Amino acid sequence: MYDSQLADRIEKYLKQYEGDKFKSGDLYRALHLKKHKRRDLEDTLRKLKQKRIIAGKNKLYYIDGSPLLQEFIGKFDARPLAQNKSYAFVLQEKRDIYVSREDVMNAFHGDEVVVAIKYEGRDSLHGYITGIRQRARTNVVGRLESYHGRHFLIPDNSLLHSDFEIYESGAAVVGDKVVCEVTNWGNSEKRIMPGCKVVEILGKAGDPDVEIMSVICGYDLPLEFPDAVISELEHLSAEIADEEIDKRSDFRELYTITIDPASARDYDDAVSLERIDSGYRLYVHIADVAQYIKPGTALFEEALKRGNSYYFPRKVLPMLPEKISNGICSLRPAEEKLTMTVITEYNSQGAVINQKVVESIIDSDCRLAYEEVDEFMENREHQLDTETQSLILLMQELSRLLQKKRLERGYLSLDLPETEYIFDEEGHVIDLKRSMETESHQIIENFMLSANEYVAELLSRTTTLFRIHETPDQEQIRDIQRLAGIYKFNFDLSHTINNAFQIALDSLETPDRHRVFDRLLLRHMKKARYDITNMGHFGLALQTYTHFTSPIRRICDLVVHHQLKALLKNDFFADKGLVFTKAKLTEIAEIATEKEILADTAEREVDIKNKLLFMKKKVGEEFNGVVIAVKASLIVIEIDEYPVTGIVPLSSIKDDYYEYHAAYDTLLGTQKSQAIRLADRFKVILVKVDDDIIFEIKDK
Question: Which of 91, 88, 89, 87 is nearest to 74 (CA)?
Answer without folding.
Answer: 91
